[in-house]
Amino acid sequence: MDGLIAQIFTTAFLATFIRSVVPLLLTALGGLFSERSGVVNIALEGLIIFGALAAAVSTHLLTPSLGTAAPWVGWLAGMLVGGLIAWIHALLSIKYRADQVISGTAINLLATGVPAVVLTALYGVSNESPKVEYALPLWGAGELRFSPPVFFAFLAVAVTWYVMYRTPYGLRLRATGEQPGAAASMGVNVRRMRYSAVILSGVLAGTAGAFLSIGNLDSYVRNISAGAGFIALAALIFGQWKPLGVLGATLLFGLLQALSIALGGQNLLPSTLVQALPYLITILALIFTGRSRAPKALGRPYDG
Amino acid sequence: MTHDSPPRPSGDAARIALIACAVAALGMLLFPLATLGRGFSADAVLLHVTGSVMNLTSNQQAPLPPTGTVLALAWATLGTLIVTLLGAWQRQRWYWMTGLLTFGLATAAVVVLGGALDDQSQRVLADTTLRPGAKRQLGNFYASGGMNLGLFLPALAGLIAAGAGLTARDWWWQTFNRMRSLLVPVAAIGLAILVGAVVVLIVQPSINQSATPLGLWGTWLAKSDLVYFVYSTLFAPVTALNPLLDSLKIATPLIFTGLSVAFAFRTGLFNIGAPGQLTMGAIAAMLVGVYGPPSLGYGLLALSVLAAGAGGALWGAIPGLLKARFGSSEVINTIMLNYIASSVLVFLIGSDSFPFLGREYNQPLKAEGSNPQSELLQNEAQLRPLLEVLNVGQNGQVALSVGLLVALAAFVIVRLLVRKNRTLIALVAAAVLGAATWRIGIPVSVTGSQLNGAFLIALLCAAGFGMLMWRTAAGYALRAVGLSPKAAEYGGISVAKNTILAMTIAGMFAGLAGTHYVNGGALDEYRLKQNMPVNVGFDGIAVALMGQSTPAGVVASSVLFGTIDTGAVSVTTKLAKVNSDIVTVLKALIVLFIAAGGFLSRRVTSPPPPALAAAADRHATPAAVEVNRPLTPQPNVAQASEDITREGNK
After folding, report:
1. Cα–Cα distances in Å, from B88 out to B41, B93, B282?
2. Could you tell me the superkingdom of the organism this chain comes from (chain A) (predicted)?
3. How deeply is A278 buried, as exposed, middle or buried, from its count of CB atoms within 10 A (0-12, 13-18, 19+)?
4. Which position has the higher pLDDT, A226 or B445?
5. pLDDT class for A290, splitting at 50, 70, 90?
6. Is the pLDDT assigned to residue B33 strictly greater than 50?
7. With contacts defined as CB-CB under 8 Å, which chain B residues touch A109?
8. B65 versus A24: which is more confidently predicted?
9. Of the candidate ranges A178-182, B79-83, B608-612, the one whose mean pLDDT is the lowest
10. Which of residues 234-293 of B touch A (CB under 8 A)?
């Protein structure tokens, strides 16, 4: 057994672990903003896909003119498109008072069709984009070399914590999610707070997508997110809608994912069942957290 | 306003008619009127209202039918459209007549055009000097012609204007009012089609097989023709029997998953877990169908179908239980269970062996060979194609039995006529008459279709959904929980129990979809395969939303989706840059727009009651009270979950 543990817990494993955490962490932080403002964001999965697609395609298209700067612009494009799609979700759930879960599901459905249409129109194939010449650069040493969004993600935890608990914006945001009526009577523009939070969640999920397509791989492929958005949502609930809780929860889920990848290579358990493990653990984790400490106004359209 | 003045259409109706007519009049000028012929790769001969003919086909020498009458009728249509427009502007009471006239003229133009094209086809057919191949090609060339946007829009606008005009009459107004719940889905479909059209315009380059270059105007006409071509191809399957049967085949699993999602909606739950429940149902159906005792005869089929329902029910009960007991959101749990189910499926039939604690074990459920699939189902567990079951023709001739239709008609009529025990008596009458007329058949020409018995099971499920939901006490409790969990709780209805029950039944519906794929052989063979399209589970959400969570609505929208899915196949083969994925986008957009209430103002979708409006009218003040009464209970997932959490923690 010792040999097995030594086989699994290597530096390469640590690298895999960190790479599995990053998309979950970025997306969950995005979800944190959205849900703390009172808007359920089931659309995170779709936002990741849109971000990944936009990053890969724009990097590929811009490489001839921008060279090595292209992936940076690609990252920006991923954020932008993520924010734009999130804006649609915000518009539907805030202005048109749509059911937020259905609106989010619609965006996820859109994310299963739009990439194929875009890729067919641009490249004539529906499953993947062509490989980009320059992906985001890798920083670090040895096997622990990561693309910039990795560092951005961990920085984002600190920033999110600071913004959420130490700035007027954070205070207003939390108030909006708990008691929008009370917040409004104190002069907070509830709608604007919610719009900004949902768009911010799109920007962060778009970054997660950009990390997947041009930070981790060098092209967009179908199913690139593999449910990361939903797991991030579960991590958000497990982390009790708090930045540090979210960090802890995503570290746990990331560890499980990395373990399932590492165990898949061993002859220990059927690899397909091991792949299902993170989802099973998510269900178990949800049992122990429930919805008890959710923002009180979560999922309710605001009148007024 | 006094009651003596002549009746007028409502302001909203007049505005809708105004917009429709304006769009149609503009459309007649901007889009081609008709297609005089169409080649294989969607290249076309276009006729514009100015009389100019653009031949973009490779078939440059093909003689074209005369267009004089069509053009004259088109100009007349444009004239009546403008008159209707003025009528709508002035809110005159008679513009339903001009609307009908517009519709009539446009239809006449289409009929004249169709006749001219038919004449050409006949001429080609009679031409003995042509090679058979060329004959077929030319025949298809004329047969694929027909009206284009320029004639379609005025016909549609004429109908809308006529409808709007009729709202001035009390009876019509009330009839239209009853159909108001259709407004949001129809508006959503319209908007989705509009957005899809823009996508096609951007994505698909214009098709020009002629040697002459296109100008800016020509490119526009060619592109707008492609938009019409895409949609007419998508909706084409309803026009012929074979593709219609294919559409019904594709619609079958959608009915199941749509019912599943709709059932959950009605009880305030959101079931995204239909893909997983379907997978589990299919696995269970396979286990019984392959390994069940063959001595049961056709009981094995019944057992297999029951197993499919039970498998799905079990998989649906888990999130229901978790929600009732621990208050964890069924949305996340069902999604996670989807992933787990797909892993289980791949595990069971994906590979020949699996490792366990360092040793390799054989995977007994997977069939021999390289394909990821299970063993073949036993003969007794297979649902036969409907064509085979209904066929009463002899000596290889296909004649469909009328027994089923007669039975259905008898059931409805007898049920309406009889007062006591009417369902029972109607069932008996249906069975007797159906059996008596079974041997009578209508000869049809079809080439065979995989539409199977699962379609009938789906229809039975839809009927069962309606009966359970609106005719039983359990259904009342389920609906009460869906409308207001708190009120239901105070009324003595257990929210927790009904949550579990609702998810179980929803899961059962989705699981039964497995019978279509496994027992029905919809994957070309009577076995469980890894390429089972579990995504129909997500399409179920769109179907349920569009069907307003009613059984009849679910069936209707499933058939619509089945139709466009079938049509998408021919779009994919004919156009280079637009493929079947556009249908996925359309469905997603429909969900998006329904979520937004079709962007219709609440005044249109749920106006204040007539009495209130009349009172407000009399006092010449705007209605002070805004009544927002939702038409169907849309799920309020978060709220419901909170209430149930409270209950669960008690």
Report:
1. 41, 9, 55
2. Bacteria
3. buried
4. A226
5. low
6. yes
7. 538, 541-542, 584, 587-588, 591
8. A24
9. B608-612
10. 270, 272
Is residue B283 scored above 90 in pLDDT?
yes
Q: Does B252 score more than 80 pLDDT? A: yes
Instruction: Write out chain B residues lying below 8 Å of A102, CB-based.
Output: 270, 541, 545, 591, 594-595, 634-635
pLDDT at B639: 42
Encode pLDDT of B620-642 as tens digits.
544 444 444 444 445 444 444 44
Residue A109 CA, chain-centre distance (Å), reads: 17
Which secondary structure element, helix H or strand E, spans residue B54, and what is its range? strand B53-55
Is residue B327 within 8 angstroms of chain A, CB to CB? yes
Would you state the pLDDT for residue B451? Answer: 84
Instruction: Kindly report the length of chain B.
Output: 650
Mean pLDDT, chain B, rounded, equals 84
Tracing tokens 């446009």 back to the chain, one arrives at B106
Which residues have a Cβ under 8 Å from the Cβ of B643 and sit 6 or more positions away?
B485, B486, B489, B495
Which element (helix H / strand E) includes B608?
Answer: none
Residue in B331, B336, B346 nearest the CB of A279: B336
CB neighbour class for B570 (10 Å; exposed up to 12, middle 13-18, buried from 19): middle
Query: What distance in Å separates residue A18's CA from the closest CA in chain B?
Result: 22
- d(CA B573, CA B586) in angstroms, rounded, equals 19
Whether B316 has a pLDDT exceeding 90, the answer reads yes
Which residues on B lie below 8 Å from A290 (Cβ)? 326-328, 645, 649
Instruction: Tell me how crowded residue B220 is: count the other CB atoms within 10 A of its CB.
Output: 16
Place of tokens 């699962």: B454
With an 8 Å Cβ cutoff, is B6 touching chain A? no
What is the mean predicted confidence (pLDDT) over B190-194?
92
Q: Report the distance separating Cα A93 and Cα B162, nearest Å.
A: 35
